[in-house]
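Colleagues,

Please find the record for the two-part complex below.
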Amino acid sequence: MNLDLTPEQLAFRDDVRAFIRERLPADIRERLRLGYLASKDDTVRWQRILAERGWAAPHWPRAYGGAELGQVERIILLDELQRAPAPVPQVFNINMLGPVLLQFGTPEQKATFLPKLARLDLWFCQGFSEPGAGSDLASLRTTARRDGEHYVVDGQKIWTSTAHVADWMFALVRTDTAAQRHRGISFLLIDLKTPGVTVRPIRSIDGAHHLNEVFLDGVRVPVAHRVGDEGQGWECARFLLANERSGIANVGACRERLQRARELATTTRRAGRRLIDDTHLRHELATLDAELRALEVTNQRFLLTESARAANPAFASVLKLRGTALQQQLHGLLVRLGGAPVREHVDDPQEGGAPAATATDTTPVPHYVERYLYSRAGSIYGGTSEIQRDLVAKSLLA
Amino acid sequence: MHFEPNDEQVALRDSLARLLAEQHDHETRRRIAASEAGSSPALWQQLVDLGLTALPVPEAHGGLGGRGADQLVVMQEIGRSLLASPLLGSCLVPTAALAALEGGQPAGLLSALVGGEQLAWAHDEPDGDGSARWVATRARRDGETWRLAGAKAAVHHGRGAARFLVSARLEGEAGDADGRALFVVEPDAAGLQARALRLIDDTPALALTLQGVAAQPLALDSGGAARAIDAALATGIAGVCAELLGGMEAALRLTVDYLGTRQQFGRVIGDNQALRHALADMLVGVEMARSMAIVAAVQLDRCAEPDALADIHRAKLVVARHARALAESAVQLHGGIGMTEEYAVGNYLRRVLVLETCFGDADVHVQHLDASTPEAVATLAL
């Protein structure tokens, strides 16, 4: 047993660190430090810089703009990006759709879409959830009726984050209403400029516009934009979710928030004394630090060891449960440390809010409270914590 | 990075698991606990025959020169079996202390340990917190003889020990880093009073009172004694983490079996989502504990380095937290039967209560980590 990176892996980490230090735009870093989510502009600017090294799509083949990184290097890259903090490669394009196209796509689909996905020339969003299909995704009702070389899509998607800034959406639709419910589903790529697509905003409790409803009304989608066979959509979706595991624990993001908490506690004085001088707070920070170490090693153990995954088939659920719990705890801690001033809410103009009140005031207001509020979604999307516990229990009790 | 035991460790683990399955079922455990000594010399001899006492001792002293990962698989099985064994406190821990003394150890102590002689670790004190620096027991020179005065709390398996390994202070106050020393004390030494007691998990222990007890010095220099005590505690912590992990796995297994068989309202209680979710949280706890037991085992091999020692303290903090939560859930999910002494599952909770305070409780580990964070160092420098 050993916990060490090899000299080559250490050199890779240093390379990533140096690259981030030299190339990450300061304004992006500052926004993320203050609790803002990376905006589309942040993500596009940074991902095009990462693309120079193939790190925009770290695990993809080089032929499509990737860097063919191994699992250890992927963990290192993600960890360093999150710790910086820098935006991570756009998850829908890179972690979800890209691998599905590589596995199930036609040569034409790969050639057409993959390079654009890597450079974010096209921004995809994910059209899975529906008003009646949340945790029970397979009960989705959006239909795609074959009409010559097109499908005609009717239905509604919901909780579609970034749909309002996206160019395309990958969606699960029902192509066979008579088939058993998992079998009648297909995976389509839908250009959001197609007539019949309507995107309506949903403001979330953080006051920002990340989420949307997407209405599909007689939308004509070329059959050539179906990924995989007709009826293979559920298989694609399962493959996609399995691929999502490598970033599921978000250890680096937690590390960065803990570091931010330490900084705030050290620099903030309240009622005449530094927050860090409170014993209770120092205990809390030390405990969080230790719990994060446990999550970090658990993440490495599962992602790098086949036998560990075999021994615990529900490992991805374990990582998500613990990762989201710690993230939410850390965001809650930042609310407390940020104190009363951060409860002043200023809309983020990059997230659909009004522009800042004065043009001269370019310093963003901290968004710890907003970020805490949005972090509550972490244990809801991608399978709620209750669904994850069901999966873990099933692996034990059958 | 590599997190799995190697072939030899798997073989060792399997032999020990087989031995304990055959020789230490729950009924046997209860019989041993009810006996006057509270431990089984026959079972101890079997562990010695298996080579466990030779495992940690350097090859130069007739041992196998084992590493932290070897200790991990052994202590995990002991934890799983709820075996009240002197292996950790009277063999692995004193071995680490002796091995950390640079050439200063009297010939024969380590090889005696290999042969199964027990050297009980007597460091914790009644008013202490289990930390490395809390040593109030005094040592003074009386002509050619060193004499100790003070008290040592709950020396596990002290009655079966051939000797005691005792920390004492030449100068300064309890809590000071400087001034600590290590001695060997014979159990029949004049002025040594030993009160036999049982811990809540049935572990037999001795509370020692030392009144001018003659002692043989092992380390009189502050640096040497500090290194030995640190190595001993790091070994103890890593061992406790592994033992807790094994206990957690066993308690989880019992709970899974119970939820799959116990019927109420005409169906197995494992059909109830509230119970299933509690079970899921138990598995999450096991995986966090497993990771940190591995971390402690690996870092034990370089525990003189501050970053490794910090990881070892993190491990105990995390493992003990999750172990307590898991054992409480295991009792809860068993309902009334979980409350009975006769049934195994509640005994894991009793074991957790003892182990979580061994070699420093949560406060000690937090304080160590707090004092080693960059901000704390910067603050001290101001």
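Chain B has three domains: 7-100+108-114, 119-220, 226-381.

Comments are welcome before we finalize the supplementary table.
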